[in-house]
């Protein structure tokens, strides 16, 4: 009889312990199930602009325009190089007010945003033949090149959403970097 009494007491104690644990386990379980997780997939594309230079020479004039061949908006600028003695005989004409010259950098900037598939207005670089003849001495023949280098940068936005160009950004290995090599955050 004593054996049944000990068993009964142990059984009753085990049930009480189980009941007490079950009540507190519910609160712990509620904590762990209050947070849900979700799964899925989102394709993120960090495309960079791409441009193409169109320059055609007619009547001693180089007709320069830039086409945005990429999938992102961009700003463009152009530098024109020639031999130093020919620089004075180059005359620039912008077909649009969007082109502006920055003498400190020696660049022509296209101020409008160039959207994908869009082409800038022409920038004309004419070689003045009279000045050239004076430099070469009585119409002597010389070979020369007028080289066009165009650059582009992605359109960035400030905290107020206004677009701007950062010409110090560089793309290296698919990552956009500042001129000092640090990662650009935009």
Q: What report would you give on this structure?
A:
The chain is built from two helices and eleven strands; from the N terminus they run H-E-E-E-E-E-E-E-H-E-E-E-E. The chain has helices spanning 2-33, 129-136, and strands at 51-58, 61-68, 74-82, 90-94, 99-102, 107-114, 123-127, 146-157, 163-165, 170-172, 175-177. The strands form three sheets. The protein has a five-stranded antiparallel beta sheet, with no helix packed on it. By secondary structure, the chain is of the alpha+beta class. The protein is rod-shaped and about 130 Å long. Helices cover 22% and strands 37% of the residues.
Beta-strand portion reads 35-45%
Structural class: alpha+beta
| Global mean pLDDT | 78
The global form is rod-shaped
Biggest β-sheet: count, sense, barrel? 5 strands, antiparallel
How many angstroms separate the termini?
A: 82 Å
Q: What's the short version?
A:
The chain is an alpha+beta fold and 186 residues long. It has two helices and eleven strands, in the order H-E-E-E-E-E-E-E-H-E-E-E-E.
Write the layout of secondary structure elements.
Elements: H1 2-33, E1 51-58, E2 61-68, E3 74-82, E4 90-94, E5 99-102, E6 107-114, E7 123-127, H2 129-136, E8 146-157, E9 163-165, E10 170-172, E11 175-177
Antiparallel strand pairs: 1-2, 2-7, 3-6, 3-8, 4-7, 5-6, 8-9, 10-11
């Amino acid at each position: 009889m004593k054996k049944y009494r000990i068993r009964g007491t142990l059984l009753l104690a085990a049930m009480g312990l189980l009941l007490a644990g079950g009540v507190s386990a519910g609160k712990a379980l509620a904590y762990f199930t209050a947070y849900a997780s979700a799964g899925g997939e989102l394709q993120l594309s960090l495309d960079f602009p791409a441009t193409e230079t169109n320059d055609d020479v007619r009547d001693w004039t180089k007709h320069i325009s830039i086409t945005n061949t990429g999938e992102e908006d961009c700003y463009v600028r152009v530098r024109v190089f020639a031999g130093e003695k020919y620089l004075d005989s180059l005359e620039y004409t912008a077909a649009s007010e969007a082109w502006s010259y920055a003498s400190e950098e020696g660049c022509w900037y296209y101020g409008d945003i160039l959207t994908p598939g869009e082409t800038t207005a022409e920038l004309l670089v004419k070689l003045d033949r009279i000045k050239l003849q004076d430099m070469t001495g009585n119409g002597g023949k010389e070979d020369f090149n007028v080289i066009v280098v165009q650059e582009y940068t992605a359109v960035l936005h400030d905290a107020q959403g206004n677009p701007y160009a950062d010409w110090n950004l560089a793309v290296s290995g698919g990552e956009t970097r500042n001129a000092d090599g640090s990662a650009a955050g935009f």
